[in-house]
TrEMBL record:
Organism: Neoarthrinium moseri
Ranges in coiled-coil conformation: none
Skewed-composition ranges (Basic and acidic residues): 244-266
Protein name per the record: Ribosomal RNA-processing protein 7
Example of a GO biological process term: ribosomal small subunit assembly
Length: 310
């Protein structure tokens, strides 16, 4: 039996790797796990951070492992590091930025259609099953915080019982196979048919043309917008929109800031009027108060001068 390596702040989860025809030797793989240190949302408090996940890991494999530790129903899902960092293909022209002022329901329908178009424009997947580099990480989401404590407690007990979870036990043929079948499937997916490629290209240009239209709308909206000094730049020909998306976003931000500045200035103008009105009222009130005091004093002095007849 392999000796369990030490790890600071991590619990060690030993997993038994069964023998394979290509490597007919049973071995032990060590996965290191701890509570997720980055607690930003409520979900983070019920998650575990995993290091050194096996190269052939899938959600089904870890679901079976956690079910063997604490029973079914406590494992919700897992996010591998390549899923969290994988970039998505952008179909925007360099200067595209959305400008839509539609009703809520209509906007939601349009966004759903746009999302569907963008998904259809993505490049097809070339692998039926993703493999991982050595030492890869993942984040497991459990049902609640109590499940996290139960998993850590069950992992600590494994060093005494020596009954390690068996990798792939209970998965069967639910996960796509590796080996030669995996490579054959990859070769087939790498050469899609002409119809599939044409559909993807059509979807791509549908999204691209929509972004172009939105960029033109942004350019028209910004043409008559004055700058900070109040001047409007007049151009003849040439491009009518920023060259990069960053420039478009910066231009849009400045335009919104100018609009907000105008609104604040208008509000401050009315606030100034209110302040001046309150000051005038206070001055008038103090003036009447002093007049009343003078009248009362004069009445008292007049009363003292009046002597009753003897």
């Amino acid at each position: 039996m392999a000796e369990q390596p030490a790890a600071d702040d991590f619990s060690v989860l030993p997993i038994t790797l069964p023998s394979l025809p290509s490597y007919p030797v049973q071995s032990t793989h060590f996965v290191y796990l701890r509570k997720n240190a980055k607690v930003v949302t409520k979900s983070d408090a019920r998650s575990l951070f995993l290091v050194n996940v096996p190269a052939d890991s899938t959600e089904l494999h870890f679901r079976a492992v956690f079910a063997s530790l604490v029973g079914a129903g406590r494992f919700e899902g897992i996010t591998f590091d390549h899923n969290a960092k994988a970039p998505t293909t952008s179909h925007e022209p360099a200067y595209a930025l959305r400008l839509a002022a539609l009703g809520k329901r209509k906007r939601q329908d349009q966004e759903a259609q746009h999302k569907q178009d963008e998904e259809a424009a993505q490049l097809p997947k070339l692998w039926t099953r993703q493999t991982h580099r050595s030492g890869s990480t993942a984040v497991v989401l459990l049902a609640d915080e109590k499940s996290v404590e139960l998993v850590l407690k069950a992992v600590r007990k494994l060093s005494k019982t020596k009954k390690y979870p068996i990798w792939g036990d209970g998965v069967g043929d639910k996960a796509p196979p590796l080996g030669s079948q995996w490579l054959k499937a990859h070769n087939k997916l790498s050469y899609p048919g002409n119809d599939a490629m044409q559909d993807m290209v059509d979807a791509y240009f549908t999204v691209f043309n929509r972004k172009e239209l939105e960029a033109a709308q942004l350019a028209r909206a910004m043409q008559n917008e004055p700058d900070e000094d109040g001047f409007v730049t007049v151009t003849r020909g040439g491009r009518t929109a920023p060259a990069r998306q960053e420039e478009a976003e910066e231009a849009k931000r400045k335009m919104l800031e100018r609009q907000q500045k105008k609104k604040d200035e208008t509000q401050n103008f009315y606030r100034w009027q209110l302040r001046e009105k309150k000051k005038a009222e206070q001055v008038e009130f103090l003036k009447r108060f002093e007049d009343d005091k003078s009248k009362l004093k004069a009445m008292r002095e007049k009363r003292r001068k009046i002597q009753p007849d003897s």
